[in-house]
């Protein structure tokens, strides 16, 4: 088969994504660098300002923002130089995280392009935060969903809920369509 005849990329079904996410799981810590200067972590990491300073974190994305979740916010970090972006998301399969994909990807991209270090967290650093990082890798780094999952999984066990996986599948399909038409 010649290169111009390669089959078009197809967004994988949810069951294949789950299989990939559950394969070869091993213990991962509270915080892991999953892309250069991009970290996924849990709530305890986000609330440990001395750890954030030691990691040289300059930006925090809280994917579980709000008083009902992990109430850090810009005021919590006011005695540091950390810039904050909050997403008030519930870790439920019926919660639509899609509307936050682009704004969060823009925030992360802006931080990284100015030599910053970004922590993206939720309660456990597994579902909401992972979903936003995967969306960033797809939107800004032009990775397919499979490539993004494989990249993150090299450094951290993540498991977005099935609703978030379907939202990432939708994003993957629309980005693949854009790549084909440009």
UniProtKB/TrEMBL annotation:
<keyword id="KW-0904">Protein phosphatase</keyword>
<comment type="similarity">
    <text>Belongs to the protein-tyrosine phosphatase family. Non-receptor class dual specificity subfamily.</text>
</comment>
<feature type="domain" description="Tyrosine-protein phosphatase">
    <location>
        <begin position="29"/>
        <end position="177"/>
    </location>
</feature>
<dbReference type="InterPro" id="IPR016130">
    <property type="entry name" value="Tyr_Pase_AS"/>
</dbReference>
<dbReference type="InterPro" id="IPR000387">
    <property type="entry name" value="Tyr_Pase_dom"/>
</dbReference>
<dbReference type="InterPro" id="IPR000340">
    <property type="entry name" value="Dual-sp_phosphatase_cat-dom"/>
</dbReference>
<feature type="active site" description="Phosphocysteine intermediate">
    <location>
        <position position="122"/>
    </location>
</feature>
<dbReference type="InterPro" id="IPR020405">
    <property type="entry name" value="Atypical_DUSP_subfamA"/>
</dbReference>
<dbReference type="GO" id="GO:0033549">
    <property type="term" value="F:MAP kinase phosphatase activity"/>
</dbReference>
<dbReference type="GO" id="GO:0008138">
    <property type="term" value="F:protein tyrosine/serine/threonine phosphatase activity"/>
</dbReference>
<dbReference type="Pfam" id="PF00782">
    <property type="entry name" value="DSPc"/>
</dbReference>
<keyword id="KW-0378">Hydrolase</keyword>
<protein>
    <submittedName>
        <fullName>Dual specificity phosphatase DUPD1-like</fullName>
    </submittedName>
</protein>
<dbReference type="GO" id="GO:0004722">
    <property type="term" value="F:protein serine/threonine phosphatase activity"/>
</dbReference>
<feature type="domain" description="Tyrosine specific protein phosphatases">
    <location>
        <begin position="99"/>
        <end position="156"/>
    </location>
</feature>
<dbReference type="GO" id="GO:0005737">
    <property type="term" value="C:cytoplasm"/>
</dbReference>
<dbReference type="InterPro" id="IPR020422">
    <property type="entry name" value="TYR_PHOSPHATASE_DUAL_dom"/>
</dbReference>
<dbReference type="GO" id="GO:0043409">
    <property type="term" value="P:negative regulation of MAPK cascade"/>
</dbReference>
